[in-house]
Amino acid sequence: MAQHFAGPQSVDASPADLQASAELVGLLIDVAGSEGGTPSVDHRGADRHYQTQFGDALTAVLRDVLGEAADPPFLARCIDGFWRAIRAQEASL
Q1: E strand or H helix at 86, and its extent?
Q2: Which residue, among 91, 72, 19, has the nearest Cα to 1 in the 3D structure?
Q3: Sign of torsion over alpha carbons 53, 55, 59, 61
Q4: Is residue 31 within 8 Å of 81, Cβ to Cβ?
Q5: Which of 2, 40, 92, 93 could serve as 17's disulfide partner, Cβ 3.0–4.6 Å?
Q6: Using one digit for the tens of pLDDT, what is the confidence trace for 53-64?
Q7: What is this structure's pTM?
Q8: How far apart are CA 50 and CA 5, in angstroms?
């Protein structure tokens, strides 16, 4: 995901790209384990630009990584959970 953040013209992801990727992947993993609750991972270091890019690419990345295991219900849970967590943590600011 960090390389996605860096863009097609970049050779390497920047430290900010790497940090945002790590935070948002951590948030997604926490969402998957929270069973609808508010995840404990703090994503606030990843600005809105990174959050949007991550959310937009999430379906394609999950399909690439998980293959057939990334069925539509699973993808919907991941996407919904990710954005729910972003909104919940923004509301707590």
Answers
A1: helix 72-91
A2: 19
A3: positive
A4: yes
A5: 2
A6: 999 999 999 999
A7: 0.80
A8: 7
